[in-house]
Design brief:
InterPro entries: IolE/XylAMocC-like, Xyl_isomerase-like_sf, Xyl_isomerase-like_TIM-brl. Keywords: Isomerase. By secondary structure, this protein is an alpha/beta fold. The chain has a single domain, classed as TIM Barrel. It is about 40% helix and about 15% strand. The chain has 10 helices and 10 strands. The strands form 2 sheets. The chain has an 8-stranded parallel beta barrel with strand order 1-2-3-4-5-6-7-10, surrounded by 5 helices. It has a two-stranded antiparallel ribbon with strand order 8-9. Helix 1 runs parallel beside helix 3 and helix 5 crosses helix 6. The relative contact order is 0.15.
Length: about 300
């Protein structure tokens, strides 16, 4: 990917790509404005941006709606599955609140990450039961649950394992969240994607990082939370391009969100970071997926073979 130097261009051909508020510094309104100025039409929201708003949650919801940005999804519900007794009841209450916030924001996807809790059971029937329960809680709100395998998850840490549980749960609004970082961190072969129903992929999050391997869970956590970069900026650019092409060839037609935890970006001006994100989206849309700017009313071009 070439460094971004030109003014932001029309965003029609990057409509499937969005940025995550986690990537940006500052108050919610500034993040929303930066995303729009950077050429994006959608944004992935983090709960802390909403509940941490100085004027309260209602003001945060109003700011999101006034921005005109489509909400890609809402994150993140952690450590939900595999618990029992009072711990399970506690997490059910948390899930209900997360679902209510997602609904208020107009988010149609809630991201749930595989559990890292030492108190969570790895018994498959329990995991399946709990994810069904979560999806059932979200169903009346019209919200889909995207279950994502964290690369340091206690029992589920690879995308094919997450898919196996989602497939067995077999609930209409329960699907998969695919995160490129966790795939590369665990060296998961991309061939496993061939066994996944693309209609059950509800969200794809994209990020690269600056070194080839993260051998231990501790290294994966440290890299994930501090050293991610935008697609095309790290050493996994070719693998990431292959991942996106493969998902497109499988028939995935949903959203891609840039989830880039980066300490450097947290202390740089918002327009600079948003411009880097826009450059990444252009690279993916024009060079990787070979999409052009569609004419009004014309069908969008798909990826080249």
């Amino acid at each position: 990917m070439q460094p971004y130097t030109s003014p932001v261009r029309a965003s029609a051909h990057i409509a499937d790509f969005g940025i995550d508020t986690i990537t940006l510094a500052g108050p919610l309104e500034a993040k929303l404005a930066a995303a729009r100025a950077g050429g994006f039409s959608q944004i992935m929201l983090a709960a802390r941006d909403i509940v941490g708003h100085p004027q309260g949650m209602e003001a945060a919801v109003a700011a999101v709606r006034a921005s005109g940005l489509r909400v890609t999804g809402f994150q993140v519900l952690r450590d939900f599955e595999g618990l029992s007794g009072h711990l399970h009841d506690y997490k059910v209450d948390i899930a209900k609140q997360m679902i209510a916030m997602a609904s208020a924001l107009g988010a149609r996807v809630l991201l749930a990450c595989s559990s890292t809790s030492p108190h969570a059971s790895g018994e498959r029937a329990t995991l399946v039961r709990d994810l069904r329960k979560l999806a059932l809680l979200a169903l009346p709100h019209g919200i889909r649950v995207a279950y994502e395998a964290l690369s340091w998850g206690r029992h589920v840490n690879e995308v094919d394992a997450a898919w196996s549980i989602v497939e067995e749960a077999d609930f209409p609004n329960l699907g998969l969240g695919v995160d490129s970082y966790h795939i590369f961190a665990t060296d998961t072969p991309l061939a496993v994607l061939e066994d996944i129903d693309p209609a059950k992929i509800f969200l794809v999050q994209l990020a690269d990082f600056m070194w080839q391997q993260t051998r231990t869970p501790e290294e994966r956590i440290e890299t994930a939370r501090h050293f991610r970069v935008f697609p095309g900026e790290g050493v996994h650019s070719q693998a990431l391009a292959t991942l996106v092409r493969r998902l497109d060839a499988l028939g995935y037609r949903g959203d891609y969100s840039f989830e880039v935890f980066n300490d450097d970006y947290q202390q740089l001006p918002l327009p600079y970071v948003a411009a880097r994100a826009h450059a990444s989206a252009l690279w993916l849309a024009e060079e990787v997926l070979r999409r052009g700017v569609p004419l009004p009313g014309a069908p969008r071009l798909r990826a080249a073979a």
